[in-house]
What does this fold into?
Amino acid sequence: MFDLLASTLIGTRDSLGEQACVLRGFALPYVPELLPEIEHIASAAPLRNMVTAGGHTISVALTNCGALGWTSDRRGYRYAAHDPATGLAWPAMPAVFLRLASLAAAAAGFDNFQPDACLINRYLPGNRLSLHQDKNEKDFREPIVSVSLGIPAMFLFGGHQRSDKTQRIPLFHGDVAVWGGADRMRYHGVMPLKEENHPLLGVRRINMTFRKAG
Ligand code: SIN
Ligand code: FE2
It folds into this structure.
C-alpha cells in the first residue's frame, strides 16, 4: 500500500508552504552511496539516546557528522564540535551528503546551501518527535534539508505557534523535505512510527537533517 503510493509520487513535489516542500524520491539515486556512509559514521560515533534539560530521554537515537553536531544533555540543546560520548570530533561530512543536500536545497529554491552539520536520527516503531522549532542554528536565513530513508513516517508541519494547526505529510524512503525563508521557523514533528519493514533498512527509519549551524 505504502510502496504503491510512494512509487507513484517519485519525481513530484508537494508544497508545504511558500518556501517549504517535499521533493519526492529526490534522494533515491544516492541511496547506494548513503547507506555505507551512514554505517561508517555510526561505527565511529554510535547512535545513542540523549537526555533533555528536563531529564526526559529522547526516544529517537541520534549521531552526527560534519564540523558541528547537535547534542542534548541536562544543560540543554546545542551544537558541539565534539562527540560528548567519545570526546572526538564528529566524523567528517561525506562528499555525497553535501552534494545531495545542496542539490535538494537548490531544487527547492535555496542556492549555495553548504551545511556544516548533519544530524542522523534513527527511529524505531513507536518512536516520535514532538513539535519543535529548529532554533539552535546561528543563521535562520539558511534552510533545513531533511532526508527520509527506510520505513515511512507521518511528518507534522505546523505554523509559527505550537498551537497552530498542523499538516500531516507522509514521508517515504528517498523523500527530501526542505523548509526555509518564510517557513524556516515553523513547528514540525513526527508522529509515532508504525511497525513496517523496509527491504533495505528493515524495521527502522533513518532521517538525515542538514543544517548550516555555525
Ligand atoms: C527533525 O525535525 O529534526 C527531524 C524530522 C524528521 O525526522 O523527519
Ligand atoms: Fe527539527
Notes: The chain has a mean pLDDT of 97. The chain has one domain: 2-211. The longest strand covers residues 117-123. The pocket of fe (ii) ion (ligand 2) is lined by residues 132, 134, 188 (CB under 6 Å).
